[in-house]
Amino acid sequence: MSRIIGRLPSSTLLDNDDCEDEDGSVFADETISVFPSSFELIPRKCTKTSISRNSARLKSINLNEHVKSEQKKEKDGISLPIRRKDARIIQNPFQKYRVPDEVVDVIFSNLRKRDLLSVMRVCKQFYAVGHESKRWAITDVMDRPITELTLVTLMRRRIKVLRLAGAKLDTTLPVDPRFFSACMLSTSRLECLDLSRSNLSQRQLAIVLKPCRKLQFLSLEGNILDNHVAGYVSENKNLRQLDISMTHGITMDGARMIFDKCKNLEQLNASWCGLDRPILGVLLDRITDKIRKINLAGSVRNFGLCNEHIDLLSSKVPDLVDIDISDNVEISDAAVATLISRFPKLIFISLNRCYGVDPNIIVHLNGKPSLTYLNVHGCITDNNMEMFFQMCDRLKINSQVFNYTAKPTIGSASKVWGYDMREY
Amino acid sequence: MSVENAPVVDVDEAAIPVEKKMYYRFESNDKKEFRVSELAIQQSETLNRLVEAMGYTSEDVENKPAIAIENIDGKTLKLVFQWCEHHKGEAIPVDDGSVPKIVEIPEFDAKLMDIDNGLLFKLIWAADYLNIVQLLNVSCKKVANMAQGKTPAQLRRVYLLPSDEEDEAAKRAAQEAQDPRAREVEEEFEERKRQGGNSFF
After folding, report:
1. Judged by CB atoms within 8 Å, which residues 136-155 of A form the interface with B?
2. Angle value at C-alpha A128, between A172 and A191, nearest 5 degrees
3. Domain final residue, candidates A59, A74, A91
């Protein structure tokens, strides 16, 4: 209301095109052609009127004369008796030349994501086209502050590889419940999802994981893994690599859901996620022989991984290539004996800080033909290290500091499970 | 331009049909005539199919009337055929769905597309209509280049786009113009609103 009253005194005034002062900054880039001819389409001095008070007087002013010359150019021949304030005729070239949405998509598929975003902010049509663009197939939101609304929007784009690692989620702006419920009903075509270090709330995890059905690679490092989340994860039957390291809240039911349904796992990283004996029982009971790399480091102290579990594992998955059972105090000489006698294809063994194992037994791993890498940080005292190296001359001792089982990023930070996240 | 004195525009003057090559004749919607070689036509899927379906012999081409392309004007069609002649025989790129497409604009194309906004959009439309994949890619790349590193406000200025609000306002104004009664109703509404507004003071 205040706007209308504010315009009352001036019934007619010249429109000093307020965009004009931007000219300098916009066209500073000489390399980009600016199409001078089309600028003539904007009426330089159009009359701005308000129909609020003196409408009778206004009607007597014939504005048509002013527009006539331009109207001749137009085929539609729309005559505007009185120009409203916002009704400047700007001819949208995309509408004038009937550019179909597919072509708009082709045009903008040449852009980088940053430019695509500013294009999407121009108008509804561009937003709709850009939203569906294939340009989003690989999206990197690493270490950026985002809101729940962003999450919802991201889940509706055509994303195949999404990195949310370390994304700082704003918890103060919850998304509209309608969006949330719509998201719960939708499905996504995500195949790779990296949520490590992102610390999402349960609600946010639901937004991200509920629509996923086609995940092949998933990292939940450091997030909550309660029964709800486990339920969402278990919907992805084609899961090949699962990283649940450092998660908290896993239960027997959760583990049952995940390992009952995900039968195609090739790599599993369940380190430091509070595995106790019942959960380990569930896990090892349901594991398939497709597993090649497994990391069970840091299970619950005094109630975690023990020698019987290694026996069970050797009967279930004889073809294991990489095993990490670091920081399990209950592991003792019997387990190492199993490692030596079974698992004919084992190349990597990590026994860091397994204080229950006698170094004199570890030395026998030197005789295992398939083994190449052995990591025993903390098991051997510094004084004996020299001698240990001599006795295990065939092996590479302590050459690996980190275990990369099922981890999205190995070495170079620009790649996630082999997909290049960089922009060209 | 009248039909009688319509000039025959030779796109590729050096290659007048002396050899045994087939040259097809096309006519734009403003009655300009073009001669285009068979090889160049292969760049356009639409025209290629059309020509195959017609099955003209070389005598037919001369005797029968030129093939009319109804919805493209002469200026645009000339550019299209110039491009086709220059790129004839080149392989048509297959869309493998890879995004971003890596498109290089060759020097010839850059010169050809040194045209104003309107013509460029007409060219894109024609390339889409005639299904010339590479021309579409190149011309789209050209339009996309204009958008690089711009803010939304600058983009509106570059492409001369109205914002959604302006668009709607313009549509409303156009509608009102067609239906004067609607305008009267709106005026009355504004009047009432104004009176209501004044009562606040």
Report:
1. 137
2. 70
3. A91
CA distance A90 to chain B (A): 6
**ipTM score for this prediction:** 0.72
Work out the end-to-end distance of chain A between its first and last CA atoms, rounded to an integer number of angstroms: 49
Domain membership of residue A83 as a residue range: 2-91
Q: Strand, helix or coil at A406?
A: coil
Residue B104 with chain A: CB contacts under 8 Å: none
Separation of alpha carbons A387 and B138, rounded Å: 68
A172 falls within a domain: no
pLDDT in tens, A80-133: 445 455 444 556 777 777 788 888 888 888 888 888 989 898 888 889 999 988
Q: How confident is the model at residue B194 (pLDDT cuts 50, 70, 90)?
A: low
The string of pLDDT tens digits covering residues B98-149 is 666 677 888 888 888 888 888 888 899 999 999 988 898 898 888 888 888 8
Out of B125, B148, B177, name the one closest to residue A98 (CB): B125
| Of A97, A102, A109, Cβ closest to residue B100 | A109
Closest-CA distance, B150 to chain A, in angstroms, reads 7
Residues A302-331: tens digit of each pLDDT: 899 999 999 999 999 999 999 999 999 999
Residue A239 lies in a domain: no
What is the DSSP code string of A161-218? Answer: EEE-TT-EE-SSSPPPHHHHHHHHH--B---EEE-TT----HHHHHHHHTTB---SEE
Higher per-residue confidence, A261 vs B11:
A261
Q: State the Cα torsion B114-B118-B121-B123 to the nearest 10°.
A: -60
Of A90, A92, A97, Cβ closest to residue B125: A97
Q: What is the mean pLDDT of residues B64-84?
A: 87
Reported as a single tens digit per residue, the pLDDT across A363-402 is 999 999 999 999 999 988 889 999 999 999 999 999 988 9
Q: Which helix (H) or strand (E) holds A341?
A: helix A333-341
| Cα–Cα distance, B172 to B162 (Å, whole number) | 14
Number of domains in chain A: 2
Q: Are strands A241-243 and A168-169 parallel, antiparallel or unpaired?
A: unpaired
Which residue on chain B is closest to A32 by alpha carbon?
B146
Return residues 60-99 of B near A (CB < 8 Å): 97, 99
- Distance between first and last Cα of chain B: 65
From A80's Cα to the closest Cα of chain B, the distance in A is 6
Catalogue all structural domains in chain B, each as residue range(s) with its CATH number.
8-152 (3.30.710.10), 172-198 (no CATH)
